[in-house]
Amino acid sequence: MLVLSGIVIIVIGFALGINPLLVVTIAAFASALAAGHGPIEVIGMIGKAFVDGRFLAVAWLALPTIGLLERAGLRDHARGLVQRLRGATTGRVLLGYLALRQLTAALGLTSLGGHVQMVRPIVAPMAEGAAERGDPTALDPETRDTIRANAAAVDNIGLFFGEDVFIAIGSILLIRAVLEQNGIIVAPLHVAVWAIPTAIAAFLVHGTRLLLFDRRLKARRQ
Amino acid sequence: MIGLDALGVVSGLLPAAVAVHHALHRETRDWWRSAAFWALFAASLIAGPWLPDVANGMIVLAMVALATAGLRPAPVRTTSAAERAATAKRLGSRLFLPALCIPAVTLAGTLLLPDGKVAGVALIDPKQVTLVSLAAGAIVALGLAIRLTAAPRSAPAAEARRLTDAIGWAMILPQMLAALGGIFAAANVGQWIAMGATTIMPLDIPFAAVLAYCLGMALFTIVMGNAFAAFPIMTAGIGLPFLIHHFGGNPAPVAALGMLSGFCGTLMTPMAANFNIVPVAALELRDRHAVIRAQIPTALILLGVNIAIMALSVLPGTPR
């Protein structure tokens, strides 16, 4: 039962707003010590697992490129581009990105997106640009943050509920492997087909919320 | 062969450059904290596989200590709004090209070299083709961006540091959480949760079993930050014995919708740092949970949708 102390520490630590790195470290120690591992052993476990996860750092290699493009005005250009489109609103811009992200992910093109490569330099400035309509003072910091958070949310939702429709994605392979261990053979296509209803629901639900978000933004302006 | 070790070395060059930049531009008294933090991260990525586990663990603990004390980097000088407007006007939509080059090269590499063989030679570890392509795409894109924007020689490192500082310690959080997930798994935290779910819920009622499986997947994912960690345990605990074997549910929809319920959990948890905390840092939002807040309503509705679809596919009388 004490091995669950790690979860309690995570919940309390995150709720109190303590630095997540510290919270995670303490939680790891609590659960591992409770499971009977010695402190030096736990340090080794953390070190090994951290190094095993180093593939997660590859995505940061995009940063210098994005930085240089921002330096040359990529965000400003993205913002201006949207303002030249009549009828572009924040909700519609994000709805378009949701459709694009879901469709490309469903085709297995999951790398076409991402918070650092796409949302920060392109999608978020477009969504903000549509709301401010050439007047950079039109958005208070609160509204700007909400728009950016929604841009990030669209990237996640589009990816999660698109990728499962593709037959060779990690989650489908994991499903197959787990079922196979238990003597059940399923075709990847069979599993992927059952992701389609939820994918459609995700587009309808989140799309509606984005259009409602437009209304809220409009109400806020007045 | 180019594999995970080579990828780690290339990835480590970024924090190494940032650390050197901090050491060469000492504008605040606290410059050494940032320099040390990024140097340690670089050491872990580059040399980690050849260091003893405990040494790697000590590096991690030192990074956690520095981050907890606060990195406090000095702001990096970049272009003014007027300069940016001028270059943006001159370069126009060509500015998109290097940014789109990264996914384009990633896709091309993944599709054209599925087995990692170049001209018959096994050059790339077949398991890492996508990541190697991503790294290659980032390097090609950087070259393009330097040429296109005619950036001065100092700009790439300065801009890399500007964004790295903006994201800060959140950059190592995904790896930390992956480590925590491993420790939770080693401590059998998952079995405890599955056991809890099976004792609380009356699993002999079909709908209750569906509810327990879907909510269990979402909750477990919220705790672990990763639906992939939750899926094998919840499926072995509830999905297989109750939904598939006992009630004769169709395995494909049960498993698919179970996984998608886990994804709903991913949208609601700070433990999924890659998706929910990193963007907060990358977009410089003040509320750490802003992205999660934007996602919760959609996640809850879709969780309900998943439960409904699964219930319809498991209840008797549905086509198999």
UniProtKB/TrEMBL annotation, chain A:
Q: Quick check: keyword DNA-binding in the entry?
A: no
Which of UniProt's keywords are assigned here?
Answer: Membrane, Transmembrane, Transmembrane helix
Question: Where, by residue number, does the polypeptide cross the bilayer?
Answer: 7-35, 55-74, 157-179, 191-212
| One Pfam family cited in the UniProt record for this chain | DUF969
InterPro entries for this protein: DUF969
Q: Where is the signal peptide?
A: none
Q: What is this protein called?
A: DUF969 domain-containing protein
Organism of origin: Sphingomonas lycopersici
